[in-house]
Amino acid sequence: DSDLSMRTLSTPSPALIFPPNSTGFQNGRGSSTSSSSVTGETVAMVHSPPPTRLTHPLIRLASKHQKEQANIDRLPDHSMIQIFSFLPTNQLCRCARVCRRWYNLAWDPRLWRTIRLTGETINVDRALKVLTRRLCQDTPNVCLMLETVIVSGCRRLTDRGLYTIAQCCPELRRLEVSGCYNISNEAVFDVVSLCPNLEHLDVSGCSKVTCISLTREASIKLSPLHGKQISIRYLDMTDCFVLEDEGLHTIAAHCTQLTHLYLRRCVRITDEGLRYLMIYCTSIKELSVSDCRFVSDFGMREIAKLESRLRYLSIAHCGRITDVGIRYIAKYCSKLRYLNARGCEGITDHGVEYLAKNCTKLKSLDIGKCPLVSDTGLEFLALNCFNLKRLSLKSCESITGQGLQIVAANCFDLQMLNVQDCDVSVDALRFVKRHCKRCIIEHTNPAFF
């Protein structure tokens, strides 16, 4: 490896792509740690295909017994590819250096539908450039097999890395760049404009991303109705603190096919942004506005326009939401399955009653830190929501063991109950355990075990 000039653009070396003892590429089936002894800053380089036979003078011929034990070479190609499919990406690169046959098998297109990067020290931009260049050998400048790129927590990812993906991977369907705070709107615009099949986009923690839209060039080339052609269905913008109502308006106008949208801790979003959202995105099934402190009952009135399509809603720690907002949701969203209203201190037993009577198919409910909810509200839940599987009552000061016993006597399928920091007796907890045998109880009572 001392003569770098002899290397050609063929097989990326895992020891040179990844720093020592760092987390390497994955193929979507687990992770692996590079065992390279290379020290210092690493550079993504590539190696030529290995020769058919290893002829190094230090390599001795194996004994007859050893040759008989090497049965893996007798396997047909399809079996070898099946074995390789369970290897992480950096190990695939290692396998490609064993012999010419393994080289050809390791770069079979079926093994390269997913690239996954994790770790803060990886030179992500360089690694993406090297891998996409190798995957584009059979189809120059275009990588047709790659459908998923997951780059989580790689702080060295910049716009340059996303430009590489946008230009080389037109068939991309899933992109996750959570925690990569160096990327900007321009790079995201390029990806959504050049990857028309993109359905899943996770930019959570990317604080510079303020909206999702087409590039100006793409908007000019396409018809005015092209906004409906952006195929993103899943969008996670958790912790995109700079996102405002205007940016949400742009997102809604361009991503009309959204079914899953997560806006956790997008603290600048207000009811007006939700109004824009409901005008364009009428197919949303899952929505989270947790910790959006400016969202109020008026926002709930807008969300209620989703009606029976809404199945998942998180409004945790939205302190301006009261029973009025819960009544809107309960009245129109009758097929709701999941509701997280933790920390909404304006919710009382009346809101829980209306919710229980109208959303009878609820399976998961979190009303922790709602001090105005008491055993009366639990009784309404127990008598109407028989399918309840998960219930969190953490820090509900007005809850007692009597309410828990009513729930346990009616909700036999209960699988998780959180009563931490609640004043409930050991007898009540034992009653729950007897009636709901599969239920995991989270509690703070040292006498119950």
Automatic annotation (TrEMBL):
Keywords assigned: Cell cycle, Cell division, Cytoplasm, Cytoskeleton, Leucine-rich repeat, Mitosis, Repeat, Ubl conjugation pathway
Domain F-box: 69-115
UniProt keyword Zinc-finger, yes or no: no
Polar residues: bias regions: 1-13, 20-30
Cellular compartment(s): Cytoplasm, Cytoskeleton, Microtubule organizing center, Centrosome
Record has Ribosomal protein as a keyword: no
Top-level lineage group: Eukaryota
Region (Disordered): 1-37
Pathway annotation from the record: Protein modification; protein ubiquitination
GO biological process per UniProt: cell division; protein polyubiquitination; SCF-dependent proteasomal ubiquitin-dependent protein catabolic process
GO cellular component: centrosome; SCF ubiquitin ligase complex
Job of this protein: Substrate recognition component of a SCF (SKP1-CUL1-F-box protein) E3 ubiquitin-protein ligase complex. During mitosis, it mediates the ubiquitination and subsequent proteasomal degradation of AURKA, causing mitotic arrest. It also regulates mitochondrial function by mediating the ubiquitination and proteasomal degradation of the apoptosis inhibitor BIRC5.
Quaternary structure annotation from Swiss-Prot or TrEMBL: Part of the SCF (SKP1-CUL1-F-box) E3 ubiquitin-protein ligase complex SCF(FBXL7) composed of CUL1, SKP1, RBX1 and FBXL7. Interacts with AURKA; interaction takes place during mitosis but not in interphase. Interacts with BIRC5; this interaction allows BIRC5 to be polyubiquitinated by the SCF(FBXL7) E3 ubiquitin-protein ligase complex.
Family note: Belongs to the FBXL7 family.
Designated name of the protein: F-box/LRR-repeat protein 7
Organism: Rhynochetos jubatus (kagu)
